[in-house]
Amino acid sequence: MNARRAPIIVLASTKGGVGKTTIAFCLATALARRLHRARAGMQEHRVACIDADPNRTLQQALRIADMPDVRCIESGGETLLPAVRDAQATAGLVIIDLEGSANQAMLYACGKADLVLIPAQPSRFDVVEAVKTAGVVRQAADLVGRDIAHHVLLTRTPVLRQKVAEHSRGQFVKAGLPLLRTELIQRTAFQHMTYTGEPPHAQDPNGGAARNVEALADEVAGILGLSLAGAAGIQALRSRRGRTSAAGEAAA
Ligand SMILES: Nc1ncnc2c1ncn2[C@@H]1O[C@H](COP(=O)(O)OP(=O)(O)O)[C@@H](O)[C@H]1O
Ligand SMILES: [Mg+2]
Prior knowledge:
This protein has helices at 20-34, 37-40, 57-65, 80-90, 104-112, 124-144, 163-174, 188-196, 200-203, 208-224, 231-240; strands spanning 8-11, 45-51, 70-74, 91-97, 115-120, 150-157, 184-185. It is α/β, with parallel strands linked by helices.
């Protein structure tokens, strides 16, 4: 058994198409590479993903990726809690990907979460959906009687920082939604990987998408108190650029 139970990251949004599965795949493959064995202990896998979306897009992408350190369990609302127990017993970290609607699976997953990430694109529509999703997180917190950390993660943001992006961040903050510093930039590498199963670091370890994912993994690990291998290089990269999501990546 783990000395400490495996932390759970949940990708939640009442809206589809915001990037939940993309982020779940990127985080699972990046963290599986960088989680210390010590953290994962004698577990069979470093990361266990639970695909609770009936479309099974995460499961399909992970099957093509074929990473021995990442396991994927299919689940629905009724089977989510046993799936979480199974995942925690066999891996050092659990990532749950949900479908884009407020349902039983979302409530259960949030109730179990150590960190809920709410992906949203820089648009007013997405502010509204993120507020709804944060409402479900609050219901789950009420149900389980503890605070549940949750952050909006801006997705598909333009490579070059634009005024509209700053304005958009302000709108989420105004709506009372805490934002991650890191954003997931709009990049073809994130679409390419859905066909090939190749995560960004396998496509180009020094490319903008890979660095973007490492910065995200670092920020998430920081919130969860996980120690990751190879963080020093990423740290140096970060201090060279103010914006974690990297306006400078345009040159990469
Ligand atoms: N950062 C990104 N850059 C480019 N395409 C992206 C990015 N994030 C998501 N996409 C694309 O947007 C679409 C929806 O993303 P997906 O992760 O499936 O969303 P969700 O799981 O929330 O429904 C997919 O076609 C995906 O490839
Ligand atoms: Mg999805």
